[in-house]
Structures are given as structure tokens and as C-alpha cells.
Specification:
heterotrimer, A alpha/beta, B alpha/beta, C mainly alpha, A: alpha/beta, six-stranded mixed β-sheet, four-stranded antiparallel β-sheet, 13 helices, globular, C: mainly alpha, elongated
Chain lengths: 345, 333, 294
């Protein structure tokens, strides 16, 4: 673990509501989390949990139908109080984004070099040869071979993986303090994904950038994250150091997610084996779409450990049996096997 | 016993794009064969060729002994009772204008199986078997979730009790927890109904969970075919090794200890595949011969294993690309 | 005339059938398209009930009250023969609506099957597309004049001419929808289930193409209405004394200084009706687009 560093991003009670033709939808429900400098935090959940909305809310990228409340502390300022002009300056320079679809994120009629250069010209006020030099540097940083030649190419001449690297290069152009990556590898093949994950991994080491990684892929989380924040139906339900989360999950939903993913290591150690008639753990039911924050646990309907308390009182985030915060009235006990060994890296 | 599916020398070109360029494979009765590959490998095209949703350029496709590759569309129709397919995208694989009942009954209608009353019964039975209630018959697809829609697709494809089911990425578009339930469902249905299954996917973990044998495809050809346990324990082809090492496992300490093979370079275009071994441009251990001679998919030990690589010996020894202690291999250029 | 309107882009995903209610709600929420719908419905009602609503028979002449401006006795005034304009406009609207709907109906009857076939069979596509291009290139008025010469000018002739004139646009929409829907998985699933070509077109493609065709129709109808007015204006359509809005405008030309209302009111009626149909059509297209959920 890197030496203790300051808090870069502090989100407090972030709440987002959307006006839709079916009424109001509560997408994010009093979410709190922090990202420290140089840290890689994964925001994990399935579709509908509100993780992408949270990411977009940070720099005011939500549509007009969204109502946002709460505090977004970034490098000492509250982003919620900033004007659009200020936010535009922050976007790209201090907080940069990388999205899922490299195909639609790049302008097809401009060369790759031009697009990276655009970021440099706008935010760093660089001109001419300096732009080209820095752009080449950035391409090298993200591992694109023959960068000088690639600068002159158009997006359609690059593969999906290359395009994503270009997106990351653009995002890094101004050495942002925070990189928000929303499902950056979901649309890529697994061998290509491995390369992108490598790039993201070395970022904090080489450029000092913190990363907020939005994903549903637990394998990616296991590979990259320092800390994990798990979201469900708009609420943060668990927060832990990555090793802790996988070894000692406190929330039944987290456990359910871990059990739903086929894990070869588990077969070997006695996990579910279809040949023997054991199945992957399923979570019955669906993620609820809420109009308001119920005074109950939002996972109660699908949980096997539910009782009356769960249905009538909203659980708060508090330290669970494993020591990290869990939002549950009956968090899971720590499995005996993980008490020996393990612990923080 | 005749294999349910026997593909020989299958070729499918879309103009200059050589999507499938000579594939042989078989699926035995009741067997699940996992077909693994990344985008551009041609696996989905193979699935469509096998079910004759596209015409075949060359080669033969035998279903229960009968070659359907050359038959006219009209001649194939009655034979379609024996095989069917489910697709990846739940939002476009069901006709939004038909009720669930109509959708599931379609194969029964087309093949005139039983009087209407019996068909209705069969529909309810299938819906029960896939874990949806009989009252679903009157619903429309848009009222169902992604997972439910995939179940309807399965009910439809299996309604006429085919001998072969082709599953083209059936869980890729679903959430993790829903994927689990659909995978479990396929396992259960396969055991209960006994059909053979060609399970096409890019998700290695799913294949490891479901399949008995695994075939790995790259740029239109097969590079390795092996028993599942064997393949995951000791993959032989360099591409298979790269693929396995690239897929992250949800176990942080284990994942971070792994030595990975990282392939550099882009996947070549299927319009102009590299000469010799198609993988040689990205292969960390390629030698001169690989750029010239096309390696044939040949049997190596243990029995049943097939590999297309010059560096794999007949006795099954293969170049090992990653081992704890060895530096991670990176291919140049 | 009919070529002046463009085809509208098709929705990018398949819309669900029970979304009719939802679509209606969306249409009503947009004031412009709601207004359009209201005007259309009122006009249709008025046209249908023309016989009951008209205060006077449309061909009743009254030489004591010629060229009267709008008054309490004659809301829309009278023409040079003393005929009540309100009654004539009501009947004229009926003609307009009838021709509009029937001609588009004819276009659909001819165009949809051709479009389906063109989209479905790659070999037929160039043939049908060339046919469409030819029809599009053919000067519409020449066609109308030719038909009038053969069949004699009448409501029927105008309807047929407009119907044929509207075919290319329908073929284009039907063809593009077919091409789009063919690629979707549920069509492949139907093939896998053993469906033959006719079944595919009837059960899977056509029902899902209805949305786009409907939207095109609500745009083609106003074009046909204007087309009928033009044809009748030129004497190629409806013959007097049956009032057609076009005929009324034509005969009002020389009298413009003495009786401007004779031309303006029928003209306004056409404008209002076609505007309402266009606004409603726009709103309908937006409402049927499944991505519009704001």
C-alpha cells in the first residue's frame, strides 16, 4: 500500500433523482465515499445500481431532468457549488473521463493526434511542436507502439483496444488528479482488456493519478482495485479493502455476486460443480427501481436472511464482523477459513 | 454412435472476409462443446452456418448424419425440427408483436406437432421447465426482464425437443447474477432433455462451468480442441494460454500473483489472414516456420486432444508461456 | 407533388405493441401534436357529418344573396351563385379527407408488398428499385393528365392518380424497414423454427413495420389532400357541382377582388388540415420512438 496520502475526492450524501414520464426515480441515495490521492477505487454493482449516475454527477454531466443534492468535495472545493464554466475547466484538466465505447467517443473525421492535441491546446494552452511532442509522450505512456505514426491515423484505422488507449491518453493529457473510468474494458476482448488493465494499473505509479473505476466485472476489480465500494439500488452497501471484500464479504448481496461468478479456483477448492449437480448461486428477483428512499433494506425482498427489522428499518453503514462498513442488519460472519492468514496487502 | 453434429471443412466467406476458413468439429449426443474465441474469431458465424441461417461457402454440416450444407431452404425446413439456436441479445431475439405463448409455440406450429390443444399444453410445460409460470403465455416480451426473455428463448428453441441446441453467447448481455441463473438453467435443461449443445462464448469461466469439451477458435480456424479439464489445466496452444491467462479471476491475491501473457499487436483482419499460422504475428514464441507453413489441427496426446501448432509435440508437450518465476512474455510489434 | 415530402427516419429499435397507450400519452403531452390531433379529429367528424352539419345543401343557388361576405346567415359567406360557403367547405373537406385516405390506402396496398419483396429478396430488389425510381422521376402531373384523359376527370381518377403517385415513398419505407428487421435475431429465430418466407413477412416483418408505415401515412395524407386540391384546381379531378376545396379556390380566382373570402377560406381549410396532420404525424413519430422517455 502506498504511503498515506490525502483525500482527493469526498462524496457526501450524494442523491440523484430523475424526472421520467413514469414519475420520479431515485437513482442515487445518499451515497458517501472517498478516493485518496493515487488510490484506485472500484465502484461495483450491476445495472441499475446507480454507479454510472454517480460518476456522471461528479462533474455535473447529468441531464436537466436530474436533481442532484449532497456534497462533492474535490481538492478542497465543493463541485456542487461550482458554475458550469468552472466545471468545464475542471473536466478534462483535473477530473478526466474514459467511457465504455471507444468507437463512439472518438470523432471519426479527425486524426487521433488532432484529438489528443485538442485537449492540450485547450487546457494547457500548448501550441505547435510542443503539442506533438506531448501527444507522442502520452501515446507511449499508454503503450501504443509506433506512436509518431499512429498520431496521423484516424480512429477507424485503430482496433478497439488501441482506441481505448487513445481515450486514456486523452484523459491523461493534462495529468488529471482523478481519472473516472466507466466500464472501460467491458466492450473489449479479454486479451485486449488485459493490456488496458495494465495501463490503468501503472497510472498511479507513473503519473500520480487516482482512478475511480466503475465496473460490474469482479475479475477486473480483483485485478486492479485497492478499495471497493459496492452499490445496490442507489445505496452504498459495503466498502472494503479489495482483499477483505473478496475473502470476508459482509453483505449478502456481495456474497451473492461472488457466488454467481464461475470461479475456477472455487471448483478446485470445493465450489459449485455442475457435474455434481451443484449450481452457481442465483439471486432471485430483480433490482428494484425506487421512487423514494424506503425506510427498509432495499435488498430485503431478495435476501435469504431477511426478518422484520430488515423490512421496516433502513440499515446504516456500520462496521461489520470483518471490520469494514456494511449496510445490513444481519451481516455475514467471517468464514473460519479466512481468519488465518490474509489481511491487508 | 453417429455424432449429433459433424462439421467437416466448413468455410464461410462474406465476399473478401474469410470468417470461417476450414473448420472440423463434432458434437456427440448429450455433449456440451464450448466454442471459445474473441471478436473476429468467426465463432458466431460458425453457429449460424451450422444452423443454416446463412448459406455455406464450402464444407459439410451433418446433423444426425444428414448433410444440410447444400440443401435448399425449402428442403431444410422439415429438418429444422432437430436443431435450433438461442441468441445473445434479449432485446431483439423475441418478436415484440407476439405473445410469449405464440413465440414458444412457433416451432410446434411450423412442424405441425400435435393438435392445438396439445401444443398449448407443451408451451405451458416448456415455460414451467425454464422456470417461468404458465401464466406467462399471455405476456409480451417488453414486459419481461432480460433474464426472463432468455428463458423464453430457451423454451422456444427446445419446444420441439431438438437433438442439437446452438447457444450463441446466451448470457453475455445479462447482469452477473442473472447470468448465473441462465447458466444453471441450461445445465439443468441439458441434463433433463439430453440435447447436445454447441455453446459459443468468449467467457472462459462459463465454458469451464458448462462444457465437457472445449474448442478454441482464432481468426476463422480452430487452434485447439480438448477435454475441458485438460484444457484448463494444461493449455497447449500459445493462444489458448494467452486467453486463459488474460481472463482475470475474482480472487485478488491469486489474480495478482499470476504471470500473464500479454499479446501485443492487433488482431489481423479476416480479409487477409497472416500466412502460415494465423497467430504467428502475435505469438510470443513463434519461429520462422510459423510464418510459412500452416499448422494442421492434429491429434496429440492425451487422446481426443487436437492442436494446430508447430511447437506442440505429438506427445503433447507444448511451449509454456508463463510460469511463476518467469518474466511476463511480451511479443514485439 | 408527393415527392416534395421526405421519408422519415425509422425508429431504431422495435417498439412494443402495448405502447400504443404510452405513445398516445406522449402525443397528448406535446401541445403541438396534441393540437394537431384535436384539429384532425374535429375535421374528420365535421367531414363525416357534413350532411347533418351543413346549414344548406351545397348546390343550392340563391341569386338574391350572391357574393355575400361572412355573416350570421352565412358563416363563410356565399359565392357568385349564392351558394353557402360553409356547406360547401364542409362537403369539400369530406372530399379532401376521402381522397386523402383512399389514395394513401391505395399507395399502401401497392407499395407495401413491393417494398417487402424488395427488402426480402436480393434479386428482386434492383428490379423494384428501378421501378420506384422511374415512378419517382415521372412527372406526376403528366400521369394525372394521362389518367384523366383515359378515364375522364373525377374523384376516382384523382384518387387513382394520387395513389399511384404515392407508391414510391411507401415502397421506400417498406423496403428499408424490411432490410432493418431482417437482421434482427427474432427473424433468424423464426427461420430456425422452420418458418418459410411468406410466414416471415406476414408474421414477423410486417407487424413490426407498421409503426414506420403509419408515420409515413400520416405524412402522406396531407400531401394527397393538397394533391387533390391541385388536381381539382386544374380540372383534372372532381367535377362541379361537387365541391372540392381545390375547385373552390380555382373558381374564386377571378372573383378575388369582390369576394376574397371565397378563396381564402377554402385555402385556410387546406392549410389547417395539412398542418394539423403534419404536426400530429411528427408527434406520433417522436412518441413511437422507444428512446423518447423524458
Amino acid at each position: 500500500m502506498t504511503a498515506n496520502t490525502g483525500t482527493l475526492l469526498a462524496v457526501r450524501d450524494l442523491t440523484v433523482r430523475f424526472r421520467t414520464e413514469d414519475g420520479t426515480v431515485l437513482a442515487v441515495d445518499q451515497v458517501c465515499f472517498e478516493v485518496a490521492e493515487r488510490e484506485l477505487v472500484a465502484l461495483v454493482g450491476e445495472s441499475g445500481c446507480g454507479k454510472s449516475v454517480t460518476a456522471m454527477a461528479l462533474t455535473g454531466l447529468l441531464p436537466a431532468s436530474a436533481t442532484v443534492s449532497g456534497e462533492i468535495g474535490f481538492a478542497g472545493q465543493d463541485l456542487r457549488r461550482r458554475s458550469e464554466r468552472r466545471l468545464r475547466a475542471i473536466r478534462g484538466r483535473d477530473i478526466a473521463y474514459v467511457f465504455q465505447e471507444p468507437m463512439t467517443s472518438l470523432n471519426p473525421v479527425l486524426t487521433v493526434g488532432h484529438q489528443i492535441g485538442e485537449v492540450l491546446r485547450r487546457h494547457q494552452r500548448m501550441r505547435g511542436a510542443a503539442v506533438r511532442r506531448r501527444a507522442t509522450e502520452l501515446m507511449e505512456l499508454v503503450g501504443i507502439p509506433l506512436p509518431a505514426r499512429r498520431l496521423r491515423e484516424y480512429p477507424h484505422q485503430l482496433s478497439g483496444g488501441m482506441r481505448q488507449r487513445v481515450m486514456i491518453a486523452m484523459a491523461l493529457a493534462c495529468t488529471p488528479k482523478l481519472l473516472v473510468a466507466d466500464e472501460p474494458t467491458t466492450a473489449l476482448d479479454v486479451t485486449v482488456q488485459a493490456g488496458i488493465l495494465d495501463v490503468l494499473r501503472t497510472l498511479s505509479a507513473e503519473t500520480g493519478t487516482a482512478v475511480l473505476l466503475i465496473t460490474h466485472d469482479l475479475g477486473v476489480v480483483a485485478d486492479l482495485a485497492d478499495r471497493v465500494v459496492v452499490m445496490y439500488a442507489g445505496r452504498v452497501i459495503e466498502e472494503a479493502d479489495v482483499v477483505d471484500l473478496f475473502a470476508r464479504p459482509g453483505h449478502p448481496y456481495t456474497r451473492g455476486l461472488l457466488d454467481a461468478v464461475p470461479n475456477p479456483a472455487r471448483h478446485a477448492s470445493g465450489g459449485p460443480d455442475p457435474a455434481a449437480g451443484q449450481g452457481l448461486r442465483e439471486i432471485p428477483g430483480r433490482v428494484p427501481v425506487l421512487a423514494d428512499s424506503p425506510d427498509a433494506c432495499t435488498f430485503a425482498e431478495r435476501c435469504t436472511r431477511t426478518d422484520d427489522t430488515c423490512r421496516t428499518r433502513r440499515p446504516e453503514l456500520s462496521a461489520g464482523p470483518a471490520g469494514h462498513p456494511v449496510r445490513c442488519w444481519h451481516p455475514l460472519a467471517v468464514p473460519a477459513s479466512s481468519l488465518a492468514g490474509g489481511g491487508a496487502r | 454412435m453417429t455424432p449429433v453434429l459433424e462439421v467437416t471443412g466448413l468455410v464461410k466467406h462474406f465476399g473478401p472476409v474469410r470468417a470461417v476458413d476450414g473448420v472440423d468439429l463434432t458434437v456427440a449426443t448429450g455433449e456440451v462443446l464450448g466454442l471459445v474465441g474473441e471478436s473476429g474469431s468467426g465463432k458466431s458465424t460458425l453457429g449460424r452456418c451450422v444452423t443454416r441461417l446463412v448459406p455455406v461457402t464450402a464444407g459439410s454440416v451433418r446433423i444426425a448424419g444428414r448433410d444440410i450444407a447444400r440443401l435448399s431452404r425449402r428442403a431444410i425446413r422439415p429438418l429444422r425440427r432437430q436443431f435450433n439456436i438461442v441468441f445473445q441479445d434479449p432485446s431483439s431475439s423475441l418478436n415484440p408483436r407476439l405473445t410469449v405463448g405464440d413465440i414458444v409455440a412457433e416451432p410446434l406450429r411450423q412442424h405441425r406437432l400435435g393438435p392445438p390443444a396439445q401444443r398449448r399444453q407443451r408451451v405451458v410445460q416448456m415455460l414451467d421447465q425454464v422456470g417461468l409460470g404458465g401464466e406467462m403465455t399471455r405476456r409480451y416480451p417488453h414486459e419481461l426482464s432480460g433474464g426472463q426473455r432468455q428463458r423464453v428463448s430457451l423454451a422456444r428453441a427446445l419446444a420441439a425437443a431438438p437433438a442439437l441446441l446452438v447457444a450463441d453467447e446466451p448470457t453475455s448481455a445479462l447482469d452477473v447474477s442473472v447470468q448465473a441463473s441462465v447458466l444453471n438453467l441450461i445445465v439443468r435443461l441439458q441434463r433433463e432433455m439430453g440435447f447436445a449443445c454447441l455453446f459459443i462464448t468468449h467467457d472462459l469461466a462459463a465454458v469451464e462451468y458448462l462444457a465437457q469439451r472445449v474448442a478454441v477458435m482464432y481468426l476463422g480456424v480452430l487452434v485447439e480442441v480438448a477435454d475441458r479439464v485438460e484444457l484448463f489445466a494444461s493449455p497447449r496452444h500459445p493462444y489458448t494460454q494467452a486467453l486463459l491467462s488474460a481472463a482475470p479471476i475474482p480472487d485478488p491475491p491469486a489474480q495478482r500473483r499470476r504471470q500473464r501473457v500479454v499479446l501485443t499487436g492487433d488482431v489481423p483482419s479476416p480479409v487477409a489472414p497472416p500466412p502460415g499460422c494465423r497467430f504467428h504475428t502475435r505469438c510470443p514464441v513463434a519461429v520462422e516456420r510459423c510464418a510459412v507453413d500452416v499448422p494442421a489441427l492434429r491429434p496429440v496426446r492425451p487422446a481426443g486432444a487436437l492442436v494446430a501448432c508447430h511447437l506442440v509435440g505429438d506427445d503433447g508437450t507444448a511451449p509454456v508461456l508463463s510460469r511463476p518465476g518467469l518474466p511476463v512474455q511480451r511479443a514485439a510489434g | 407533388m408527393t415527392a416534395a415530402l421526405e421519408t422519415l427516419p425509422p425508429p431504431t429499435t422495435v417498439a412494443a405493441p402495448a405502447s400504443w397507450r404510452r405513445a398516445l400519452r406522449r402525443v397528448l403531452r406535446n401541445p403541438l401534436s396534441a393540437g394537431g390531433l384535436v384539429v384532425v379529429v374535429v375535421t374528420l367528424a365535421a367531414a363525416a357529418l357534413a350532411d347533418l352539419l351543413a346549414p344548406y345543401p351545397y348546390d343550392l343557388t340563391n341569386f338574391d344573396a350572391t357574393l355575400q361576405p361572412p355573416s350570421l346567415a352565412h358563416w363563410f359567406g356565399t359565392d357568385e351563385l349564392g351558394r353557402d360557403q360553409l356547406s360547401r367547405v364542409l362537403h369539400g373537406l369530406r372530399v379532401s379527407v376521402a381522397v386523402g385516405v383512399l389514395s394513401v390506402g391505395l399507395s399502401l396496398l401497392i407499395g407495401v408488398p413491393l417494398g417487402l419483396l424488395a427488402g426480402f429478396y436480393r434479386l428482386l430488389d434492383p428490379v423494384i428499385s428501378r421501378l420506384t425510381d422511374t415512378l419517382l422521376a415521372f412527372p406526376f402531373l403528366v400521369l394525372a393528365v394521362g389518367l384523366a384523359a383515359i378515364l375522364g376527370p373525377s374523384l376516382t381518377t384523382a384518387t387513382i392518380a394520387l395513389g399511384i403517385g404515392g407508391v414510391p415513398l411507401i415502397i421506400r419505407v417498406a423496403r428499408s424497414e424490411t432490410l432493418r428487421l431482417r437482421e434482427l435475431d427474432f427473424v433468424a429465430a423464426a427461420v430456425a423454427d422452420g418458418a418459410g418466407d411468406l410466414q416471415l413477412m406476414r408474421r414477423h416483418i410486417l407487424p413490426n413495420a407498421v409503426n414506420a408505415l403509419l408515420v409515413q401515412a400520416t405524412v402522406s395524407v396531407p400531401a394527397a389532400i393538397i394533391g387533390e386540391a391541385v388536381l381539382s384546381f386544374l380540372g383534372l379531378g372532381v367535377r362541379p357541382p361537387i365541391p372540392s376545396l381545390g375547385v373552390m379556390i380555382a373558381s374564386a380566382q377571378p372573383l378575388f377582388r369582390d369576394g376574397p373570402w371565397l378563396a381564402v377560406i377554402p385555402g385556410l381549410a387546406i392549410v389547417l388540415l395539412t398542418l394539423a396532420l403534419n404536426l400530429f404525424g411528427d408527434g406520433l413519430r417522436d412518441a413511437l420512438d422507444p428512446r423518447e422517455s423524458r
